[in-house]
Specification:
By secondary structure, the chain is mostly helical. The chain has one domain (2-128). Helices cover 51% and strands 9% of the residues. It contains seven helices and two strands. Strands 1-2 form a two-stranded antiparallel ribbon. The two termini are 19 Å apart. The mean pLDDT is 92.
Length: 138
């Protein structure tokens, strides 16, 4: 559930904008420059060599860029990277140092006071249910 909530956190109206395309009578969304996803793209996704990016093989991307992603699944897409990183923010028992890409992406959430408050609330609710957040498999 935390992962799925991470999708909402990284794709809500504070993160995306809508543009109307009158020629097709449709709307398209795009990430705001200050969005978590746009910043995550700049931290890790621009480092992916073209041949790996076109292979769409998350395991190869994960292995080729150690320290850039919190999990193999995070390499599936920028949206999954956002949700997986948010999950790690909530479940980690410590605040990492900004030494690698995955840590820098986690720290993006710590820079936002609303996310710090949200993290605390989720962790408190987990503890009320008898669930102790722990270090995710990094």
């Amino acid at each position: 559930m935390i992962h799925e909530f991470g999708h909402y956190i990284t794709k809500n109206k504070t993160q995306l904008y809508l543009s109307y395309l009158p020629e097709s009578d449709n709307y398209v969304s795009g990430y705001k420059e200050s969005s978590f996803i746009k910043q995550m793209v700049n931290i890790s996704w621009k480092k992916i060599p073209l041949e790996l990016a076109t292979s769409m093989n998350p395991s190869k991307i994960f292995n080729a860029l150690p320290g850039e992603f919190v999990s193999v699944y995070a390499c599936s897409s920028i949206d999954e990277d956002g949700a997986e990183t948010f999950t790690h923010v909530v479940l980690l028992n410590y605040k990492p140092e900004a030494v690698d890409g995955k840590s820098k992406k986690i720290l993006l959430f710590y820079k936002n006071p609303e996310m710090v408050k949200l993290r605390s609330g989720i962790r408190q609710n987990l503890q009320k249910l008898g669930i102790t957040p722990d270090k995710p498999n990094m």
